[in-house]
Amino acid sequence: MVAGFPVAPPVAPSAPRSLQFTTPQLGVVNLSWQVPLTGSQPLTYSVYYRHSQSGAYTLWGETSGLSASLEAQPTGASKSYYVTARNPAGTSPQSNTVTINPL
């Protein structure tokens, strides 16, 4: 209770929104996204990748910001990425997936 008012328990975030990418140079992928619309404030975002058309996604890393720069990404193959948000109440569903296809 804060000053006589009950405190609502934290709520797991909804999915991060509007994941998008830029590729400023060969082998680098910059991802950015927007905060979830609902739930308590996320503390950490987890970035996942897959470097083939099928198979499991792998955790690239975590960040507290709304962007990530992934270096040393393979060229010549499709790459897919998504992001989840996490706070003490739980983990969100995944964001939209973005796929980068080779030219």
The CATH homologous superfamily is named Immunoglobulins
Task: Give the class-level CATH name.
Answer: Mainly Beta
Class derived from helix and strand content: mainly beta
Distance between termini? Answer: 57 Å
Number of domains: 1
The CATH architecture designation is Sandwich
User: What count of helical segments does DSSP give?
Assistant: 0
Using only CA atoms, what is the Rg? 16 Å
CATH topology, by name, is Immunoglobulin-like
> What is the molecular shape?
elongated
How many runs of DSSP E, i.e. beta strands? 8
Specify the biggest β-sheet. Answer: 5 strands, antiparallel
Any low-confidence stretches, pLDDT <50, length ≥5? none
DSSP strand (E) fraction?
A: 35-45%
Taken in chain order, the helices and strands follow as EEEEEEEE
Q: Averaged pLDDT, please?
A: 89
List keywords for this structure.
8 strands, Immunoglobulin-like, about 100 residues, single chain, five-stranded antiparallel sheet, mainly beta, three-stranded antiparallel sheet, elongated
Structure description:
By secondary structure, this protein is an all-beta fold. The protein has one domain (17-100): Immunoglobulin-like (Sandwich). It contains no helices and eight strands. Strand 1 (17-22) and strand 2 form a beta hairpin. The termini are far apart.
Give a summary of the structure in a few sentences.
The protein has 103 residues and is mainly beta.
Give the SSE map.
Layout lengths: L16 E6 L6 E6 L9 E7 L7 E6 L3 E4 L8 E9 L2 E2 L6 E3 L3
Antiparallel strand pairs: 1-2, 2-5, 3-4, 3-6, 6-7, 6-8
